[in-house]
# Entry
Amino acid sequence: QVQLVESGGGLVQVGGSLRLSCAASGSKISTYALEWFREASGKEREFVAVVSWNGTNPKYSDSVKGRFTISRDNDKNTVSLQMNSLKPEDTAAYYCRARRGPNIYWGQGTQVTVSS
# Structure
């Protein structure tokens, strides 16, 4: 079992930056793909970014590409999401996910609100 806890959300102005972190416990996540999703009020949860187990080939949704950066630290059992140039449409609850084969674990989410 893997427990994931996100942190770093908050209120930020348009154009600002936030760094989200997701800490894993219960098991090492070094062999898991790690992802970030977000869910805006009234909308479906959507993919934001993914990083492979070894940190290579990160991928991003078109809406965040060039503004967000996903990274992982396997020694610390964490994954982060650096968010720059934030826009009002980035407002959402952000969730991290660990995935390896059929095993999928979600965090409880952290709220990001971008005010104009």
